[in-house]
Amino acid sequence: MELKRVVVTGFGAITPIGDNAKEYWESLKKGASGAAPITLFDSTNFKTKFACEVKHFDALNYFDKKEAKKMDRNSQFGQIAAREAIAHGRLIEDQVDKNRVGVIWGSGIGGLETFESEVLGWAASNNIPRFNPFFIPKMIADITPGNISIEYGFHGPNYTTVSACASSANALIDAKMLINLGKADVIVCGGSEAAVTASGIGGFNAMHALSTRNDDPKTASRPFDKDRDGFVLGEGAGCIILEEYEHAKQRGATIYAELCGGGMSADAYHMTAPHPNGLGAFLVMQNCLDDAGVTADEVDHINMHGTSTPLGDIAESNAIAKLFGEHAFDLQINSTKSMTGHLLGAAGVIEAIAALHTIIHGIVPPTINHFTDDENIDARLNFTFNTAVEKSVNIAMSNTFGFGGHNACVLFKKI
What we know:
This protein is of the alpha/beta class and 415 residues long.
């Protein structure tokens, strides 16, 4: 059976550095930091008092009051990104067969804000179980693709992938495979997260995962820097329209790139720490190249997972050096988490959108906040420190890894 080709025909985003895909890309090119003091709750007593929030967000700018009350912030972000991507891809305008359009979404946590507020409300009520009737629907991680399909009447495959920070990258890979096999013509694919809450910050603080650079939040996310001290929590959503190539051509859609490869692997090592030798990272990139039928020396750019954690950045860098050999030093690589922070389950898709834009525009955004080289990371690697670089990019890779040792990698090609 010959596998069908999968292309990108639209995208949308709402992020800490831009309320739509265009603003997001412009901020990436400029090297803008989305980190700032937390406004969503009182962080006075927390070790970390900053995050990468979506700025000045008001749900009533996007939804009527009744609709907004039925949705967690996580789902609101997802719906907004999907609306932009669907409009960008002209899915409704061109009257596609909605029975052949699916929605696959990724979220690592789901409606954390809803869960936290409902449980705290119950705890303060002298054990009287007065829960909001929308508590469960707002909280569950799979509600976002359900809401999107309800709004547009898409009857194709519909579910959520949950693999921690690899969730939305896994959603992209699942969508690719379903289209490859002819199970759908189009899949609205993405991820969302809204975990900047007391329990989100407190929980990651308890793990010693977050930066505590409260005196200078904008430089706190510093992937590959010797003095990095953890990641910065971000929030938002991204969405990509994936479509079967011939279907896209037939309806005259704009084709931005081909999703030519998807790889998955497991570290099988530790709940939260990466394999020290980068074994899982090496395997997932190799699996992705094999799936695409692409050799290592054909790759021009990698958007790394690059979270700004002491162990993770070293393991991933070593894996790249091992897999790509001498070509590793010709690759233009970066970590856009230096600007957006870590969007957990939404990280994979917003970073895939960044990689797509490098192909479309021939510009690799910077890894900002680099001050001191880490002697444990090969200095010959081109991390695109602090300033964007113009580069013709034909093939771009994006890595996303999650707690539990979940690794996902996607590869896009100019078409």
